[in-house]
Amino acid sequence: MEKALLANIENPRSREAAFYVEKGGYESLKKALEMEPKDIIEMVKKAGLRGRGGAGFPTGMKWMFASGDPKFPKYLVCNADEGEPGTFKDRPILERNPHLLIEGMAISGHALKAEYGYIYLRGEYPEAKDILDAAIREAEEKGYVGDNMMGSGKKFRLVVHQGAGAYICGEETALIESLEGKKGQPRIKPPFPVNVGAWGMPTIVNNVETLSNLPLLIRVGPEAYAQIGTPECPGPKLFCVSGHVKNPGVLELPMGTSLKEIIFDHCGGMKNGKKLKAVIPGGISTPVLPPDKIDCPMDFVNMPKHGSMLGSGAVIVMDESVCLVKVCYRAIKFFEHESCGKCTPCKEGVIWLRKILGRIEHGEGREGDVDLLVQVAANMSGRTFCPLGEGAASVVQNFVKHFREEFVEHISRKGCPLP
Amino acid sequence: MMLSDTARQKIQDVRKLYPSARGALLPALYIAQREHGWLSPEAFRAVSRELRIPEATVRGVASFYAMFHKAPVGRNVIQLCTNVACMIMGAESLVDLISKTFDVQPGGTSPDGRFSLIIMECIGACGTAPAMLVNTDFHENLTAGNILDILERYK
């Protein structure tokens, strides 16, 4: 498959507007500006594009809701908070292909009649901030964006807004709060951001990868676009693979590529001849899978049927040397650190999970602790304000479901059996 | 510690990019932090005055975010990731190595003021783990063999 999202990123000039244009860049924006906004939305719906941030919500539908709201101004927000542990798929776009994102946002801005776009960039990517600022300045100077986009008379202004190290701000309502200069705590829904978002106005929050799909979608048209990937989830997908594989990194593959194929073909299989023990397929919040369950198509519809989720496409591969109790404990320490403190089931639940996991890991586990873990997780599940607490509960539930023996052994042997 | 005229001007410029003064709060806190390396009580007061936002609000917001330093930090800030992808590739032994070599505990600063060490929650370099940020520079594929040489460059 020819690369669309990661096209030409190895070239040292990949960040320059002139180079991007040489390779056909900004042609899709030109085409889009000649189209009616509603026709672009129709095209995105027809193509079947789904949000790449993790939830997989149909992008065209989200756009239709915001576009149908009579309030103005409308805001476009690019979610570049990429905080889900294991995820580094947006970084190559932000650092090596910034004009692709800018073009995607400008197309989206025109379709939604939004004149202001904010890129909410995680604080942990300081280099990307400078690169994006420079690329936006260049795109403005050349007239691709700004007060008169490509001579169309349409305005689209872009601002990079830097987050400051809070995982919860990847959740779209928390992100909006943070953009407004508040603590990043999620809002109650409804109303949804498409109607009441940033500064009370209709706001579209789309992931970096979602927006970066638009130039391709406009260039090839919805029919050809829908031919890539699976029927329910078309298009190319970025997978970022880490852990014990021979060749980790970011891959652009058709949506629906099998997890097994990703690990053993595209990433060269296991490193140092060790055996596969477990895979987290879509970022740390998604259910862990044992080796016999990885023959599954990686898309939003099929992964739940195979006991996990696509999430952000962040594949963490673990070999036999890894202690899964320790991984689970570390994952929960993360959720404890990032819980925003708004709702009790999450705020209190993650503390209890961490305490129980900590004593099991340190050889002080008590009989009945595994059941207690499951019970605490079950009491969080379905009761938290946003998906953060849900994710924490699910991590524990799935590690115990697939690897219960390892937890039990830690308790009976008073510590980790691995060297 | 007052904000310099340049910093104040930067805050006023960034203010124009948002429909409300409050929107400019995070960027303003970054501007203030860059000036002195951390956010002192005076810095909070200055940001509060500059954006006309109550000081308690400014402090409250800053307290929520991990990357705003509410206490002085060393000349160089090491932000080392120990989340799962880095942990399984050996990040924890690097924490110990840094701690011993430079006499700095996680969350603390070395007595000579050279390094602060902060344990991070995923910095998006999982394919090249373990990884760290030193100030604003990424360093990836870290090992016990290369990390000290990298850190030696920061004085």
Secondary structure layout:
The complex is a heterodimer of chains A (419) and B (155).
Chain A: H1 17-22, H2 27-33, H3 37-47, H4 59-68, E1 74-80, H5 91-96, H6 98-112, E2 114-121, H7 126-141, E3 157-162, H8 172-179, E4 203-207, H9 208-212, H10 214-227, E5 236-243, E6 249-254, H11 259-266, E7 276-280, H12 302-305, E8 314-319, H13 324-338, H14 344-361, H15 369-380, H16 387-412
Parallel strand pairs in A: 1-2, 1-4, 2-3, 5-8
Antiparallel strand pairs in A: 5-6, 7-8
Chain B: H1 5-15, H2 25-36, H3 41-51, H4 55-64, E1 76-81, H5 84-87, H6 91-102, E2 115-120, E3 132-134, E4 137-139, H7 147-152
Parallel strand pairs in B: 1-2
Antiparallel strand pairs in B: 1-3, 3-4
What is the compact description of this entry?
The complex is a heterodimer of chains A (419) and B (155). Chain A has helices at residues 17-22, 27-33, 37-47, 59-68, 91-96, 98-112, 126-141, 172-179, 208-212, 214-227, 259-266, 302-305, 324-338, 344-361, 369-380, 387-412, and strands at 74-80, 114-121, 157-162, 203-207, 236-243, 249-254, 276-280, 314-319.
Give a description of the structure:
- The complex is a heterodimer of chains A (419) and B (155).
- Helices cover 43% and strands 12% of the residues of chain A.
- Chain A is of the alpha/beta class and 419 residues long.
- Chain A has three domains: 17-226, 3-Layer(aba) Sandwich (Rossmann fold), CATH 3.40.50; 236-319, Ubiquitin-like (UB roll), CATH 3.10.20.600; 324-413, NADH-ubiquinone oxidoreductase 51kDa subunit, iron-sulphur binding domain (de novo design (two linked rop proteins), Up-down Bundle).
- In chain A, the strands form two sheets. Chain A has a four-stranded parallel beta sheet with strand order 3-2-1-4, sandwiched between helices.
- Chain A is globular and about 70 Å long.
- The two termini of chain A are 43 Å apart.
- In chain A, 57% of the residues are buried.
- By secondary structure, chain B is of the alpha+beta class.
- Chain B has two domains: 5-64, Arc Repressor Mutant, subunit A, CATH 1.10.10; 76-152, Glutaredoxin.
- Chain B has seven helices and four strands, in the order ααααβααβββα.
- In chain B, helix 2 runs antiparallel to helix 3 (41-51) and helix 3 (41-51) crosses helix 4.
- The two termini of chain B are 24 Å apart.
- The chains are: A alpha/beta (419), B alpha+beta (155).
- Chains A and B meet through strand 3, strand 5, strand 8 and helix 13 of A and helix 2, helix 4 and helix 5 of B.
